Amino acid sequence: MPTESAERLRDAERTRAEILDVATREFSDQGYAGARVNEIAAKTRTTKRMLYYYFGSKEGLYIAVLERAYSGIRAREQELDVDHLDPVEALRQLAELTFDHHESHPDFIRLVSIENIHNAEHIGRSEVLSTLANPALDVLTRILERGRAAGAFREDVDALDVHMMISAFCIFRTANRHTFNAIFKRDMLDPGRREHYRKMLGDLLVEYLTAH
């Protein structure tokens, strides 16, 4: 039987997760300035007072939301087992993972856009987020090193270059969906074009990295 303290800990973890779920939607919909702590508390099974108990302030809650959002994609990248794959296939799988994640997490894309509006000032105050640079690049670095050792990949591109290319494609596709559709009459998230774009991303990376 679980102890009383263990049960209280689980209750606290469930409450914290619920608050973060609601806060993610509120911040991504309303922005940092527009989101209201009262609204977030009202949509959970807790109170504004308890919300401040867990997160300290509105900014503390927003930073916690950002930390969870960024940690999610970093964790999935670390779980990807690509070391046994041919470097070209490994590169494609990593790109496809990001493609799938960003498509299925539009809240993450909106949060990134919102934080850029604020000049990344909140990310800069997070000790957690400051440690996520290396995990973002570790898998890519190993893939590129193996590709270069095999004579397949060019030497003048680093992991951050490739990370930028993947992010640019995947974030643009979701963040600019509505304006792109309004101007060009093409929905970049149209399920009928999904595999075309997914393959396009991999082709762009492979063609660039194998160009000598």
Can you give a write-up of this model?
By secondary structure, the chain is mostly helical. It has helices at residues 4-34, 37-42, 48-55, 58-79, 87-104, 106-117, 127-130, 133-149, 159-175, 177-184, 194-209. α5 crosses α11. The longest helix is centred in the first third of the chain and has 31 residues, at 4-34. The radius of gyration is 20 Å and the shape is globular.
Provide mean pLDDT, rounded.
Answer: 93
Characterize the largest beta sheet: strand count, sense, and whether it forms a barrel: none
* Topology pattern, helix = H, strand = E: HHHHHHHHHHH
- Tell me the strand percentage band: under 5%
Distance between the termini: 64 Å
Q: What is Rg?
A: 20 Å
Class per helix and strand makeup: mainly alpha
Q: Low-confidence segments, ≥5 residues, pLDDT <50? A: none
Shape: globular
Q: Please work out how many helical segments DSSP would assign.
A: 11
Question: Could you estimate the helical fraction of the residues in percent?
Answer: over 70%
Assembly form of the protein: single chain
Which properties best describe this structure?
mainly alpha; 11 helices; 212 residues
Short structural description:
By secondary structure, this protein is mostly helical. The protein has eleven helices and no strands.
Could you outline the blueprint of secondary structure elements for this entry?
Blueprint: H1 4-34, H2 37-42, H3 48-55, H4 58-79, H5 87-104, H6 106-117, H7 127-130, H8 133-149, H9 159-175, H10 177-184, H11 194-209
